[in-house]
Amino acid sequence: MEVTNLHWRKSSYSSGNGGACVEVASLTGGLAVRDSKNPAGPMLRFTSDEWHTFVRSLKGAELTSE
């Protein structure tokens, strides 16, 4: 899959947090996520279903930090 010409975006809430944010880009059938401080670095790819499950778990506070 070609991923060199993606339109990356980040939340408007990300300003002022010291650069600790991620960027997302739409892919056919899903999306890609990368560290905004390292745009040439690795990215994670998620299907639409995987991403929606992740977001639902965040909204439901099912994930915890250890």
Compact overview of the structure:
The chain is built from 1 helix and 3 strands; from the N terminus they run βββα. 18% of the residues lie in helices and 26% in strands.
Detailed description of the structure:
The protein is of the alpha+beta class. It has one domain. Helices cover 18% and strands 26% of the residues. Strand 2 (30-35) and strand 3 (43-47) form a beta hairpin. The model has no long low-confidence stretch (mean pLDDT 82).
Strand content: 25-35%
Tally of contiguous helical segments: 1
Overall pLDDT? 82
Give the terminus-to-terminus CA distance: 34 Å
Spans of at least 5 consecutive residues whose pLDDT stays below 50 are none
**Form type:** globular
Query: What would you report as the Rg, rounded to the nearest angstrom?
Result: 13 Å
Protein name: DUF397 domain-containing protein
InterPro entries: DUF397 (IPR007278)
Question: Secondary structure elements and their pairing?
Answer:
Layout: E1 22-27, E2 30-35, E3 43-47, H1 48-59
Antiparallel strand pairs: 1-2, 2-3
